[in-house]
């Protein structure tokens, strides 16, 4: 299957990356090259194979539900472009 | 006496302990070398003040006889490791001005053991690349690039990637060692391209906490050094259990240097027949045969093995890694750190920030990842790739019933020129054909210099091991290193 310009525009929107219309054609070409190449995975018999999500067999560890860190909001927001009174600010969302 | 910048880490430690030179002198020698080699573009940020302060602290410890495992050794840190109070960029425009308020676990352990930080090393943007040409801060130039008599480069070679700055700095004698990270070959392939040693440990061996994430189920940190023994010394400090990384493994870290006995008698070395890929240069095949002969001469037994799903490793990787990347890189939104490009509303601010902040390769991978995870395609691509990944891991499990380690070439070619292989992303991806399977299966892998190509460029051999058996991998790498003998220096330092 092939990605057309409309699909690439939709993916760009889902990924929250602005792509000018003039770039869609070329990007579609690049993405199609890669997607056609990965089609070869269809040759592998994966019946009854469990998908591998992690190479670590161990179960995730548990720890006591206790606060172990924090208490320095000024460090947390130190890198924000726009921080007011230890809050991150964003453009107005609610009308 | 050997120039201070040309010492191995092991020899530098001995010289410091014997008071032949001070840590400050050793550090200053490296800072001077860095100043003279700016044309390589290996560093994004240099930290001479931090380095000289750390070196002075080291000297104070030596004076009291209280030196630590790596005390006074000047290292470079890949700019993917967060360093407290020192700009960390992942070579991306989107992390402009980001100064972490915390230290990554791996670097904190190196500093705990007395290491000195010379600066932050260049890399491919978010570690996505095999040639160090996708950095926002410009490409790194390999110290193996030829020059004319006037001292100008006649051809600029890539150092490999993504840990290209680390590779160039260590090969060019700007640092005694460097940290790297390896998601699909990003330690081993550049190590091979510049003629140094690099090891990707078993997934879970080194904490990922504080390392800018690319693909979380594949990323591992490791050392890049000029000898196998140095890699053993540095890995011991980098490795270890960290409760802050849920995939970190709670196993004792062995004394890797003690494993370098040279005794590999009776060891079974797997030679995977599927690694003879079409179009592989004859000199790579020859080097591989030479490696087999060296190990045989040292008493090991070569065993032909089969890893039948090898050819599917790269396509599976190019679904799994972009999928994880698209998720990990969602955090770069212009709100909490780095670049912000305003828009008419919040959504446009996100889209503008990410359009300007990410480079072309990163955008391509985020979009592939977004696509394979999107409704309607998840099963066909992402789930399928995870199942193929399981079969690739199973290939290795079966192979290790017949052998103890696996020997392969590290990369299918020597270094190429900057600007070559740029038009076709897949040609670039093929650089990692021999290194990606170990990431998918989580296995340890080492690249060790084994000779030169017809053009006089370094070539490496790769040793893969069983999970958490870095000691045997290093032992075998050490035997190859000894058999190959001293390797020539890159032209820029010789």
TrEMBL record, chain A:
GO MF, one example: ATP binding
Catalytic activity: L-glutamyl-tRNA(Gln) + L-glutamine + ATP + H2O = L-glutaminyl-tRNA(Gln) + L-glutamate + ADP + phosphate + H(+); L-aspartyl-tRNA(Asn) + L-glutamine + ATP + H2O = L-asparaginyl-tRNA(Asn) + L-glutamate + ADP + phosphate + 2 H(+)
Short name of one Pfam family: GatC
Entry keyword set: ATP-binding, Ligase, Nucleotide-binding, Protein biosynthesis, Transferase
TM region positions: none
Protein origin, superkingdom: Bacteria
GO biological process, one term: translation
EC code: 6.3.5.-
InterPro entries, A to Z: Asp/Glu-ADT_sf_sub_c, GatC
Subunit structure: Heterotrimer of A, B and C subunits.
Reported function: Allows the formation of correctly charged Asn-tRNA(Asn) or Gln-tRNA(Gln) through the transamidation of misacylated Asp-tRNA(Asn) or Glu-tRNA(Gln) in organisms which lack either or both of asparaginyl-tRNA or glutaminyl-tRNA synthetases. The reaction takes place in the presence of glutamine and ATP through an activated phospho-Asp-tRNA(Asn) or phospho-Glu-tRNA(Gln).
Family per similarity comment: Belongs to the GatC family.
Name of the protein described by the UniProt record: Aspartyl/glutamyl-tRNA(Asn/Gln) amidotransferase subunit C
Natural source organism: Nitrospirillum amazonense
Taxonomic path: Bacteria, Pseudomonadati, Pseudomonadota, Alphaproteobacteria, Rhodospirillales
Gene (name only): gatC
């Amino acid at each position: 299957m092939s990605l057309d310009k409309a699909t690439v525009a939709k993916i760009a929107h889902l990924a929250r990356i602005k792509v000018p219309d003039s770039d869609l054609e070329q990007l579609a070409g690049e993405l199609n090259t890669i997607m056609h190449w990965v089609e070869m995975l269809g040759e592998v018999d994966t019946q009854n194979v469990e998908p591998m999500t992690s190479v670590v067999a161990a179960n995730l560890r548990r720890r006591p539900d206790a606060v172990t860190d924090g208490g320095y909001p000024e460090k947390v927001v130190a890198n924000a472009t726009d921080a007011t009174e230890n809050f991150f600010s964003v453009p107005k969302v609610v009308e | 006496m050997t120039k201070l910048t040309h010492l191995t880490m092991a020899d530098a430690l001995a010289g410091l302990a014997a008071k032949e030179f001070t840590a400050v002198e050793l550090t200053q020698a490296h800072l001077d070398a860095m100043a003279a080699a700016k044309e390589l573009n290996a560093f994004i940020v240099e930290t001479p003040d931090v380095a000289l302060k750390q070196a002075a602290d080291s000297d104070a410890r030596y004076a009291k006889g209280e030196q630590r495992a790596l005390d006074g050794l000047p290292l470079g840190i890949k700019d993917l490791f967060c360093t407290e109070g020192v700009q960390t960029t992942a070579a991306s425009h989107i992390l402009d001005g980001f100064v972490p308020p915390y230290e990554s676990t791996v670097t904190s352990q190196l500093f705990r053991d007395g290491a000195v930080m010379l600066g932050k090393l260049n890399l491919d943007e978010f570690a996505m690349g095999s040639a160090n040409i996708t950095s926002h801060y410009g490409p790194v130039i390999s110290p193996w690039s030829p020059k004319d008599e006037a001292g100008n480069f006649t051809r600029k070679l890539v150092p490999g990637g993504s840990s290209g700055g680390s590779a160039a700095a260590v090969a060019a004698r700007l640092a005694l060692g460097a940290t790297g990270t390896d998601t699909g070959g990003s330690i081993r392939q550049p190590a091979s391209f510049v003629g140094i040693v690099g090891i990707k440990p078993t997934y879970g061996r080194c904490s990922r906490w504080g390392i800018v994430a690319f693909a979380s189920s594949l990323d591992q940190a490791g050392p890049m050094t000029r000898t196998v023994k140095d890699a053993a010394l540095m890995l011991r400090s980098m490795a270890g259990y960290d409760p802050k990384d849920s995939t970190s493994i709670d196993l004792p870290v062995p004394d890797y240097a003690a494993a370098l006995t040279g005794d590999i008698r009776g060891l079974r070395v797997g030679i995977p027949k599927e690694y003879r890929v079409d179009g592989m240069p004859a000199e790579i095949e020859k080097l591989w045969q030479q490696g087999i002969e060296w190990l045989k001469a040292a008493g090991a037994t070569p065993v032909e093995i089969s890893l039948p799903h090898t050819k599917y490793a790269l396509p599976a990787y190019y679904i799994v890694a972009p999928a994880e990347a698209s998720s990990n890189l969602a955090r770069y939104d212009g709100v909490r750190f780095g670049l912000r490009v305003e828009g008419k509303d919040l959504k446009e601010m996100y889209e503008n920030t990410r359009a300007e902040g990410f480079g072309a390769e990163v955008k391509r991978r985020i979009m592939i990842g977004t696509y394979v995870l999107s409704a309607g395609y998840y099963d066909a691509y992402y789930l399928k790739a995870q199942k193929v990944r399981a079969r690739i891991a199973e290939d290795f499990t079966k192979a290790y019933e017949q052998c103890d380690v696996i020997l392969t070439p590290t990369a299918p070619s020597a270094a190429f020129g900057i600007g070559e292989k740029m038009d076709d992303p897949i040609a670039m991806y093929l650089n990692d054909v021999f290194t990606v399977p170990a990431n998918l299966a989580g296995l340890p892998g080492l690249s060790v210099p084994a000779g030169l190509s017809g053009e006089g460029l370094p070539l490496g051999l790769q040793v893969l091991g069983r999970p958490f058996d870095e000691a045997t991998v290093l032992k075998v790498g050490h035997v190859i290193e000894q058999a190959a003998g001293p390797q020539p220096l890159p032209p820029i330092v010789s």
